[in-house]
Amino acid sequence: MRKRFLSTIALAGVAALGLAACSSSDDGGNGSGDGDTITVGFAQTGSESGWRSANTESMKTAFSAENGFELVFNAADNDPAAQITAVRNFINQGVDAIVIAPIVEDGWDDVLQEAKDAGIPVILEDRTVSSSDDLYASWVGLDFRTEGVYAGEWAAEEFGDTPTKMVVLEGTTGSAPANDRADGFNEAIEGTAIETIDSQTGDFTRDGGKTVMEGFIAKYGIDGIDLLYAHNDDMGLGAIEAIEAAGGVPGVDIKIVTIDAVKDGMQALVDGKINYIVECNPLLGELAAGLVKDVLAGEDVDKSYYVEDQKFTQEEAAEVIDSRLY
Ligand code: GYE
């Protein structure tokens, strides 16, 4: 797949394009609002993490009345069936466009076809789906596989030939970031002496990370675990609580690498409790809103827009933490 990466400048350009191409909702949508207001149904995953809160805020800000939108917001509490029902409701309401942050990759064919048949364009943000890309107009998000590679490269560099026992806190089972972050990481540590002794889902939540880590500690002991790879900061933060409660020192007794770089995660990195973080930028609202306007205006858009991520050591985190936007 051709990857188009967007720098901050390109991001602003895409958003500006969208604003210039402001369209009216004369495409048959019978949603509420006057002719110039674009009614958008947004099916969010839920509110599982700090990343998600920042993403929701970014989306609500971009899809504001000021910017010409009426936003119908739904958060599915991490339930794939409820999210599909929400999308179906948007179709029945006759919204002008639908934006989805798909909880899991599979299971989207039917409802995406229904949206297409109803003439309602779908824009995906954040996570991807396994359906054919004919069924949606465009996607904007992050390269989860590369995030996993970055995290794995750090681990390979840190541990290399030293026999290392690793546990993994996986994201939501079946979600694109859980799948891709696992693959990318495993690829990067191939040939090292890092051994995955256990890997379970913590559902991207702090509580989930804490509970699963408690189980790992009960089974292997603090001394039996050298490295934790958590698919997001929140699960890593939950695991830190579990390690401290068991008398261990996170970041020292057990090294920790996570993904997201939200404020709390970055603070734990600065404090030495996390050892490395790969960023995942949640500020996708303006891009998604620009894409909705472009698609409704009949502009040509790419099928996928990748936003580039950074990565942080403890020293680098200390330098940037005060200027971070989320
Ligand atoms: O990393 C995690 C969130 O889909 C990229 O979902 C997103 C992930 C993010 O719950 O914190």
Features:
41% helix, 326 residues, 2 domains, single chain, alpha/beta, 20% strand, 6-stranded mixed β-sheet, 11 helices, Rossmann fold, 13 strands, binds beta-D-fucofuranose
Description of the structure:
The chain is built from 11 helices and 13 strands. The protein has 326 residues and is α/β, with parallel strands linked by helices. It folds into 2 domains: 3-142 and 282-309, Response regulator (Rossmann fold); 144-279, Rossmann fold (3-Layer(aba) Sandwich), CATH 3.40.50.2300. It has a 7-stranded parallel β-sheet, with helices on both faces. It has a 6-stranded mixed β-sheet with strand order 8-7-9-10-11-13, with helices on both faces. Strand 7 (164-170), helix 6 and strand 8 (194-201) form a beta-alpha-beta unit. It is elongated, with a radius of gyration of 20 Å. The two termini are 30 Å apart. It binds beta-D-fucofuranose. Residues 48-49, 51-52, 126-127, 177, 204, 232, 234, 259-260, 280 line the site of beta-D-fucofuranose (GYE).
Q: What's this, in brief?
A:
With 326 residues, the chain is of the alpha/beta class. It is built from eleven helices and 13 strands. Bound molecules: beta-D-fucofuranose (GYE).
What is the CATH homology-level superfamily of the largest domain? Response regulator
List bound small molecules. Answer: beta-D-fucofuranose
Query: What's the main sheet like?
Result: 7 strands, parallel
Task: Choose one word for the global shape.
Answer: elongated
CATH 2nd-level architecture of the largest domain: 3-Layer(aba) Sandwich
Class derived from helix and strand content = alpha/beta
The total domain count is: 2
Please report the distance between the alpha carbons of the first and last residues.
30 Å
Proportion of β residues? Answer: 15-25%
What is the CATH topology classification name of the largest domain?
Rossmann fold
Tally of separate helices: 11
Instruction: Please bin the fraction of helical residues.
Output: 40-55%
Q: Would you report the number of β strands?
A: 13
Provide mean pLDDT, rounded.
92
Record the strand order, biggest sheet: 1-12-6-5-4-2-3
Element pattern in H and E: EHEHEHEHEEHEHEHEHEHEHEEH
CATH uppermost class of the largest domain: Alpha Beta
The residue ranges in which pLDDT falls below 50 over 5 or more consecutive positions are 12-33
Q: What is Rg?
A: 20 Å
